[in-house]
Specification:
two-stranded antiparallel sheet, alpha+beta, 4 strands, two-stranded parallel sheet, 21% helix, single chain, elongated
Length: 111
């Protein structure tokens, strides 16, 4: 765990894989969302709260492919996996993954 991180630090700017937590202090919910979205990456995000309204409101604003509320890595095989921005293209798992193996076509015939 790294504390007192700023959003300008490399550990906050890059997509780090591993058990790493970069703690960035914030003063408001709006600032927290802005800090989280100020990234070229968006694979996953986490929200810890006891406020049910916040548990719905904040994830809707986050630019990430997977968002965990009050837990981590609770994804199911039915849930799509993939990131936003530079954290990947497309989705794995779930119904969304079928789009990668399908090409839809529209044909209109007038007889």
């Amino acid at each position: 765990m790294y504390t007192n991180v700023t959003n300008e630090m490399r550990i906050a700017r890059e997509e780090v894989f591993g058990p790493v937590l970069a703690v960035i202090p914030f003063s408001s919910e709006e600032e927290a969302v802005a800090l989280a979205n100020d990234s070229d990456f968006g694979l996953a995000a986490g929200v810890w709260t006891t406020d049910v309204s916040r548990a719905h409101r904040v994830p809707a604003q986050l630019e990430a492919g997977q968002i965990y509320v009050n837990g981590w890595l609770a994804g199911l095989i039915e849930g799509p996996f993939g990131g936003f921005k530079n954290s990947g293209y497309g989705r794995e798992k779930g119904v969304e993954a079928l789009a990668h193996y399908t090409q839809t076509k529209f044909v209109a015939v007038t007889l």
